[in-house]
Amino acid sequence: xxxxxxxxxxxxxxxxxxxxxxxxxxxxxxxxxxxxxxxxxxxxxxxxxxxxxxxxxxxxxxxxxxxxxxxxxxxxxxxxxxxxxxxxxxxxxxxxxxxxxxxxxxxxxxxxxxxxxxxxxxxxxxxxxxxxxxxxxxxxxxxxxxxxxx
Length: 150
What we know:
By secondary structure, the chain is mainly alpha-helical. The protein has helices at about 5-25, 30-40, 45-50, 60-65, 70-85, 105-140, and strands at about 55-60, 85-90, 100-105.
């Protein structure tokens, strides 16, 4: 399958899903729907879900594996994921206490989506970078972005 065919197939799937997305984002609880999209679309959430995989990890392991995440942001992300039932936090009664994190069944169900998204980014990152450079090079200096919004 060529890249063009793959893109066409993806485009066809997106067109088919648009009415469903419109229904979902205006359905029973639009605020909850948007908040969940925000949660699972957050870069730190995506990385934590992707890194946790099938095995438990300690906080320090996660902070070492995920480049650029601060200790505070990792804490906030893990707490949010725990609150949403995607991550389980286990505290072991030891001195010093040992805390481990693992995906719940719900978190594992999201992981396949996260890994698929990661594969897409990995496959297309150079193309996107080239597109950004071409776009930025074509923009007149001092261009008014607001003019596009009128």
